[in-house]
Structure formats: structure tokens, C-alpha cells
Design a protein that fits this description.
alpha+beta
Length: about 290
């Protein structure tokens, strides 16, 4: 370990994933008197075909440069899927090699802004690497005010009661958004913005702390959200998350309902209500102009 006692992200990841593997899942009988959750270090070493001493050094952060072959064997022992294995390799190869550069303000291109504003019936917004909302069309904001630029999606998901009330599937939503954040942030776990977000959520949300400690990595780019909108009622919407080429870390998020469904009708109603509100606001503004 370093002089500060920091084991490093690779060591922390290995320990977290080891504790999630049940012995029975890898053919090890559970004798009932285990003192640690998941597998023991020596069991991982045996399954991976490495010495116990070497694996202990990895988990203690005393060896931070294992070979890709060794990491592949450990990934199999820990039953990591393809995304989790790729993340493990990134942690091992990026630690200590990336030079910290000042983070430039994230800005959405004019073309993307114009595009999403031409979708009056499709809620759409853009978030940055750490899920800061950078741009949104009117229907996305009507769907949730926390889609307004300036908000952070993951902070709102855990800390805003209104957003929890909106998501009928809040438990499932939060369980997928944390692995998603880790996947889009990548191995740069000491980035100041990520540290700021994780620090605030760790202090204020027990659920976030538990989910973040698992170190799950999953870039779920599509799925279904179940919402209970205060104006139009229940909505079942498909979401798509598309990386924007040439805009590092920026993601376009869209929602749509199945054609002919009740949710499609309710989404149209929401768009109509939003149009009415904006038309009234514009009328009042014009009437008040000297």
C-alpha cells in the first residue's frame, strides 16, 4: 500500500467483487462457519491458478501491474461478465498512467440542440460524463423538471423526493443507474467531479452507499421506465441512451411509448399541456411588453 494507506481502485474492486461471489456458485461447499462474505482470498487464488500470496498482494495494493492473462483468470474466478472484465482491465492498465488535465466545461453542439428541439413528441436530453444535464427539449422537462440543464441526474435520483415519487420503479431505476455511472465514468475514479458526486451521495443516501460499494459496472443503453406523472398519470416509456460521436462522454437520452398504447396517448397529452403553458406564458409576456 501507499504511504497514505490507499490500496488503489484495482485492489478495492477485487475485494468488492470477491465478497459478492457465493462459494456454492463456484463449487465450494459452504461449511457454515465462514467469517467473511463471499469467497476467501485463497479460494480466489486457487480458482484463478495463482499463488495465494500474489493474490493477497493484489488486494492489498502492493502489486498494481498484473498481466492481462492473470486478470483474465481472476475475472473468471470472480464470475465477471464481459463489461466487468473490461473494467477490471482498465483499472489495471490506467492506474498511475493517466495525467490529470483540467476538466473543460462540457458543451453540447448546436446541431444536437437543434435536433432534439425538433422532436415535440419525444422527450430527449443530453447528459455529460458524470450525468450532469447539459441540454433538454421542452417535453423532457415537462416529463421531469430534473431534466432541466444544470441538474445532475444521479444526484436527483437519490436525493429528490419528487423524482422518487415520479419513478414507480425507483428501486429498479436506482439499481441500474449506479452501475451505469461507473461504466460511463470509466477507471478515472479520482476525477474531482466524480469524487464530489460520490461523496455527497455517500453521505446523504444509504441506498447509494450500498450500491456503489458493490462496484457493479453495466452500461444499460436501453430499457423501460415506469413513471407516475402528476399530470397525466402512469407512463411506460422505452428509453435509449446513445453516445454522441466526437463529444467525449456525452450521451443522448430519449424516451418513447409503444405506438397505440395508453402511454403514447398520455405522452401526447403531456406535450399538449406543455404547449398550452408555453403559449399562455408567451401571450402574457407579449401583453406585458410596453
Amino acid at each position: 500500500m501507499t504511504a497514505t494507506g490507499d490500496r488503489g481502485p484495482l485492489a478495492k474492486y477485487l475485494r468488492a467483487r470477491r465478497e459478492l461471489v457465493q462459494p456454492a456458485a463456484v463449487g465450494i461447499p459452504d461449511t457454515g462457519n465462514r467469517r467473511v462474505p463471499g469467497l476467501r482470498r485463497e479460494e480466489v487464488a486457487f480458482l484463478a491458478g495463482v499463488s495465494s500470496d500474489y493474490y493477497v498482494r493484489l488486494e492489498q495494493g502492493r502489486d498494481r501491474h498484473p498481466s492481462e492473462q492473470v486478470l483474465g483468470s481472476i475475472a473468471q474466478a470472480l464470475q465477471l461478465d464481459e463489461e466487468a472484465t473490461a473494467y477490471l482491465l482498465q483499472l489495471a492498465t490506467s492506474h498511475g498512467t493517466r495525467r490529470r488535465r483540467p476538466r473543460r466545461p462540457e458543451k453540447v453542439g448546436d446541431g444536437i440542440r437543434s435536433l432534439i428541439n425538433t422532436w415535440p413528441k419525444t422527450p430527449a436530453y443530453v447528459h455529460g460524463t458524470y450525468m450532469d444535464v447539459l441540454a433538454a427539449n421542452r417535453l423532457a422537462i415537462a416529463l421531469s423538471p430534473f431534466n432541466t440543464p444544470g441538474h445532475n441526474s444521479i444526484l436527483a435520483a437519490f436525493l429528490e423526493p419528487e423524482l422518487r415519487a415520479l419513478h414507480a420503479d425507483w428501486e429498479e431505476m436506482t439499481a441500474r443507474v449506479v452501475p451505469y455511472l461507473r461504466s460511463v465514468a470509466g477507471p478515472d475514479v479520482d476525477d474531482p467531479r466524480l469524487v464530489e458526486i460520490v461523496g455527497e451521495l455517500s453521505v446523504r443516501s444509504e441506498r447509494f452507499r450500498k450500491l456503489w460499494a458493490r462496484q457493479d459496472v453495466k452500461h444499460k443503453a436501453s430499457g423501460t421506465s415506469l413513471l407516475q406523472h402528476p399530470q397525466v398519470g402512469p407512463l411506460e416509456l422505452r428509453y435509449e441512451k446513445l453516445l454522441i460521436p466526437g463529444a467525449e462522454g456525452q450521451t443522448l437520452v430519449t424516451y418513447h411509448a409503444l405506438p397505440g398504447s395508453d402511454s403514447e396517448e398520455r405522452l401526447r397529452l403531456l406535450a399538449s399541456l406543455d404547449d398550452t403553458v408555453h403559449t399562455h406564458a408567451e401571450t402574457v409576456s407579449i401583453a406585458g411588453t410596453p
